[in-house]
Each structure stands twice: as structure tokens, then as C-alpha cells.
Task: inverse folding
């Protein structure tokens, strides 16, 4: 059983290696060639698939998880720390407090979230799990013991 | 069948194990350091005087000031530090090291349940990025987003384009989790295979498996897609399946339509089965326990939403959104509203929004108002943000109907690399009559050309 698993992994790795050697696609630019500030509307320049990453779109936040599947493209503009501001292991400052001078951003937990979290937790607790299910949940213990 | 793993000692549920965590933290750091050092020789040989080197980073020093609900005056001082060094090789590939973390010291009363001093390594990994095939190899603490996985781990990650439009990604390591109530997994691994046509679509299948002490902890499989059948239409979505509970965790799909540049419409659907979705969490706030307002395993949520935005004039946008929540157990609710905003990047912006939550529960009947404005002038910027929630009933809100928060903030660029900012936050809400909070932030950029998002210029 162990041998067959090892064989399967080895064959898959070999196949991936051969396919990778044949691919020869150019990597996405490591640094976005044009400086971009604020929330960019990618359709201003991109007429291809990347135009969909329009950060001003009202549904961008809902869809960004799928776009993040191409994280190497996000990295053209964003450092790893940008993900960590919200998707944290341990964090004690709300994203909206860190970005206090960016009211245009769609950031979670603005305002009096002590009252509001009871409502969000009732409406869609799954939205809590994405950031607080297995990470960044030590503060929940203050009340939820 | 769902199961939870409380620590139990002498019949009492032990809800924390920070002694163990503290030890684990240092072990994890050593593991990360070990992996980085181990991975270094695996990378292609680098000439000592390789083409371009760049070092960049940022420091955010933040002081918060507030009085807590139990009348403690807290003044936690934070230092957030991120650092990266990258070397671009002559063949176009890049080798880089990325580190980021924070530390906190309490200058007043204790700001958390634990120590006066705390901190976290958010990420720390060595990366090789190839000039071809979008090849990436990372070793260390990192955040992996591949299909069903949105996982921070101490481990290895590799992805590459393959021939004929295929691409593959794989990862393995130790999950970086917090365990305030329940034990989490100690190993996670998974992979995602995609097929893309750059003009039309990317479709992926993915799987994740994790173990706790050798036992099955999480086993999830999923499909994800990103379609653009025509330029004006963009469809994204994913479905994930829990192989341990044998049920679908979530289906979430969004379709957008932009017939002209200044109009965008969208609709989304989300179906969540609580029994399968909340199967593995590490906090008691999200465990199955309907008797204590916890999660009801029999609940299933169907959320249907729609919205759109229309740019009436240059920089002036009007938007509307609607979402219907339907449940198998709880009663339904609707959330709808609109927003008017005027935004000139790097100069002036203002917005006004009104939303209404309409549900069959006292807590789910309220109106939400928000007004915000921002003005930049030279090296300074000023921001005002007012959020007001007016509840129809005060029965479930500490005998209060209104929750208002006013945030006034400003910042000033002392020089291209150094910026000082502050915010004052006033709130009158069901928990505080007059709550006042303050925050002072000093940002120092090692690379003066970088922006708030941390965009680097290391390859300029």
C-alpha cells in the first residue's frame, strides 16, 4: 500500500515535471509596470481577463477569494502583509482601524462591532469562519467561554 | 458525524492552553527557520554578484488608547514590521525572503487576557519565482490560497504552469492555527489542478487533507471556476465538499455583467450547510450548540443577492444592493440599500449609504446609515466617518435603540518615508454611553516609493 502511494506520487511528480518543461509560458510581471494608487479600475488599461480585477466593482470583495487563486498575480501589486491585515493568525487591531484614512475601502467591522457582531453571527456565521474559524479567535474567549 | 475536541481535566473543560501554545510558538518559529535554511540549498545556484538586489520594508508603530467595558485604561503599543529582500537573477527569475510580524507591550492596564507583552510572526518565507511558467516555490510561514484551501501554514508550497493550459499547485506543512478552545490539526497538505484558456476561463479542482495526531481532521474537495464567456460577463464561484461528514459545505457563485463601462450589475448565490461547514473550528463561539446561541447543525442557509453600480458622472457613482437570507430553521431576512459616492483619487471623496435589515427577529430589524468624507491637501489628509445603526426594538440591545460611531482622523507626511497619523473614535452604543478611543500611528517606509499596499519597487 505504501509502495503504491509512493509510486503514484512519483509518477504524478514526473508527469508534472514533463508538462512543466513543455509549458514555456512567460511569468506574470513580478512588479506591476505602472504605479497604481488607491482602488484601481483595472479595465482602464486591461482589456483581457485581468480587467475583471476592477477593485472598484461593488462585487469585488465577494469575488476576491477566487481571484486570489492567482496569488502570483496579486503579488504584482500587493505584499504578503496586505493579506495578513485581514487574514491573520493573531491580530488585535481591526483592519478599519489600521486603514483609518481609507473610508472608501470595503473593510470588515467598522463602527460599533461589539453590538453588530451578534447580528452578523446570526445572519451568516459562515462569514466569521473564513477569518476566525481556526485563526485569530483568541479574543472570542473574552465572552464566549 | 461532527465531533469536537475539548481539553478536559478532572471533569472540567479547560478552555485554554496558553502554556502549551507558548512553547509551540517557539517550536514553530524554529521549524520555520529550519525550513528556510533547509530550502536555501535547493534553490538554483546564485552568483554572489547577481543582477539586482533590493531591500525594502515598513514599520508601523501604533499606540491605542481606550477604556474597556470593565473600566481598565489600556495603552497597548504595537510595532508592525515587514521586511523583504529580493534578488533578480539574470535569467529573469527572483529569489526573495519575506518576513512580517508584530509585537505589543501594554503601557497601561493589561489589554488582553494573557501577557502584557505579546506578538506574532505573520509570515516568514523564502521564495523562488521562475521567469517562466509562473513557477513559485515557497518555504516557511505563508498564506496559501488554492481552491478549498485558504490556509496559513509552516511548510512548502509549489505551483507551476504546465503544458496545454494546465497548471498545478501543491502544499504541505503544519497549519498555523489558534486553539482557544479546541485542538486543531497538526499536518495539512493538498493540491489544486487548473485548466485555463487565458481569454475565457480557469477551472480548478482541489483537495485538502489534514491530520490531528495521525487521525483524519479535515478532508475537503472542491471545484472552482472563473469564466469570461464574453468580455462583459465575469462569473466566479466554488463548491466545496466535506468527505468526513459526506456533505457539501458551500456553494458560492457570483455573475457580473458590465454592458457598458459605467454600469455593472451582479447577482450571487450562496448555499451553506452548517453541519458540514462548521465541522472543524477551534473556538467555542462557533461550535454546534443551538441551546447557547451556538451553531445549529441542522441549519442551512441560502443567500441570494443582487446589486449594481452606475457611474452617473465622472467620479460620481450610485449603487444599490439587495440580499435575501433564507434558512431551514431560523426565519428569513432581507438586507437592502443604496450608496452614493463621489471620489477623486488622491484628492477628495465623500459617500452616503443607507441600508435596511428586515428580519423576523428584534435584532434583525434596524436601519444603518453611513456618511464619510476624505480630503487630501498637500502632505496632509483628513477623514470623517459617521456610522449610525438604529434598531427598531431595544429589547435585544441592552435596552438601547441607537448605536452611533464617529471617527475623525488625519495624517501628515513628515517626509517621503515618514508619516504620522491619528484617529479619534467616539461611540454611543448599547454597551457604552460615551466611549472614546484614540490611535496614533507612525509609518516608516524603508523604500520611499512604495505605497500603502506595500507595493515594492525592488525590480526598478
Result:
Amino acid at each position: 500500500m505504501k509502495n503504491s502511494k509512493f509510486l503514484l506520487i512519483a509518477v504524478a511528480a514526473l508527469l508534472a515535471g514533463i508538462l512543466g518543461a513543455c509549458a514555456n509560458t512567460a511569468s506574470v510581471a513580478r512588479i506591476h509596470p505602472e504605479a497604481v494608487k488607491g482602488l484601481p479600475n483595472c479595465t482602464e488599461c486591461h482589456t483581457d481577463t485581468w480587467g475583471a480585477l476592477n477593485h472598484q466593482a461593488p462585487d469585488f470583495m465577494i469575488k476576491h477569494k477566487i481571484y486570489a487563486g492567482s496569488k502570483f498575480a496579486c503579488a504584482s501589486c500587493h505584499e504578503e502583509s496586505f493579506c495578513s491585515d485581514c487574514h491573520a493568525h493573531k491580530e488585535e487591531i481591526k483592519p478599519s482601524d489600521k486603514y483609518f484614512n481609507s473610508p472608501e475601502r470595503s473593510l470588515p467591522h467598522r463602527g460599533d462591532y461589539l453590538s453588530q457582531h451578534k447580528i452578523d453571527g446570526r445572519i451568516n456565521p459562515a462569514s466569521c469562519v473564513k477569518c476566525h474559524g481556526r485563526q485569530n479567535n483568541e479574543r472570542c474567549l473574552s465572552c464566549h467561554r | 458525524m461532527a465531533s469536537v475536541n475539548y481539553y478536559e481535566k478532572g471533569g472540567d473543560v479547560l478552555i485554554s492552553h496558553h502554556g502549551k501554545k507558548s512553547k509551540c510558538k517557539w517550536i514553530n518559529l524554529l521549524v520555520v527557520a529550519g525550513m528556510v535554511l533547509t530550502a536555501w540549498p535547493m534553490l538554483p545556484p546564485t552568483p554572489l554578484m547577481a543582477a539586482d538586489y533590493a531591500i525594502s520594508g515598513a514599520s508601523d508603530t501604533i499606540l491605542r488608547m481606550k477604556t474597556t467595558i470593565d473600566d481598565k485604561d489600556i495603552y497597548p503599543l504595537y510595532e508592525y514590521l515587514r521586511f523583504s529582500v529580493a534578488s533578480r537573477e539574470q535569467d529573469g527569475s527572483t529569489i526573495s525572503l519575506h518576513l512580517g510580524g508584530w509585537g505589543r507591550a501594554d503601557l497601561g492596564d493589561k489589554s488582553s487576557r494573557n501577557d502584557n507583552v505579546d506578538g506574532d510572526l505573520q509570515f516568514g518565507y523564502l521564495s523562488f519565482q521562475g521567469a517562466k511558467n509562473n513557477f513559485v516555490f515557497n518555504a516557511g510561514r505563508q498564506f496559501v490560497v488554492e481552491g478549498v484551501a485558504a490556509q496559513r501554514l509552516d511548510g512548502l508550497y509549489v505551483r507551476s504552469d504546465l503544458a496545454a493550459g494546465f497548471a498545478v499547485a501543491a502544499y504541505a506543512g503544519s497549519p498555523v492555527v489558534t486553539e482557544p478552545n479546541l485542538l486543531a490539526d497538526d499536518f495539512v497538505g493538498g493540491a489544486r489542478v487548473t485548466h485555463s484558456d487565458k481569454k475565457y476561463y480557469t477551472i480548478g479542482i482541489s483537495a485538502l487533507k489534514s491530520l490531528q495526531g495521525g487521525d483524519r481532521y479535515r478532508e475537503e474537495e472542491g471545484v472552482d471556476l472563473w469564466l469570461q464567456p464574453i468580455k462583459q460577463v465575469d462569473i466566479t464561484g466554488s463548491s466545496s465538499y466535506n468527505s468526513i461528514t459526506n456533505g457539501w459545505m458551500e456553494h458560492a457563485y457570483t455573475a457580473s455583467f458590465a454592458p457598458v463601462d459605467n454600469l455593472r450589475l451582479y447577482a450571487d448565490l450562496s448555499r451553506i450547510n452548517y453541519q458540514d461547514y462548521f465541522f472543524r473550528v477551534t473556538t467555542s463561539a462557533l461550535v454546534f450548540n443551538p441551546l447557547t446561541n451556538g451553531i445549529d447543525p441542522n441549519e442551512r442557509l441560502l443567500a441570494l443577492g443582487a446589486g449594481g453600480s452606475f457611474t452617473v458622472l465622472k467620479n460620481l457613482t450610485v449603487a444599490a444592493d439587495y440580499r435575501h437570507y433564507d434558512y431551514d430553521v431560523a426565519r428569513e431576512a432581507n438586507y437592502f440599500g443604496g450608496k452614493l459616492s463621489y471620489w477623486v483619487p488622491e484628492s477628495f471623496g465623500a459617500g452616503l449609504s443607507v441600508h435596511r435589515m428586515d428580519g423576523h427577529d428584534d435584532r434583525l430589524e434596524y436601519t444603518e446609515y453611513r456618511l464619510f468624507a476624505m480630503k487630501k491637501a498637500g502632505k496632509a489628509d483628513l477623514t470623517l466617518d459617521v456610522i449610525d445603526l438604529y434598531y427598531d426594538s431595544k429589547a435585544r440591545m441592552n435596552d438601547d435603540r441607537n448605536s452611533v460611531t464617529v471617527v475623525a482622523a488625519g495624517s501628515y507626511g513628515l517626509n517621503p518615508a515618514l508619516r504620522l497619523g491619528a484617529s479619534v473614535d467616539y461611540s454611543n452604543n448599547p454597551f457604552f454611553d460615551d466611549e472614546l478611543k484614540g490611535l496614533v500611528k507612525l509609518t516608516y517606509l524603508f523604500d520611499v516609493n512604495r505605497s500603502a499596499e506595500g507595493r515594492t519597487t525592488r525590480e526598478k
About this structure: Chain A touches chain B through 90 residues (CB under 8 Å). The helical segments of chain A are 2-23, 60-67, 71-74, 80-84, 95-98, 113-123, 126-132. Chain A is about 40% helix and 0% strand.
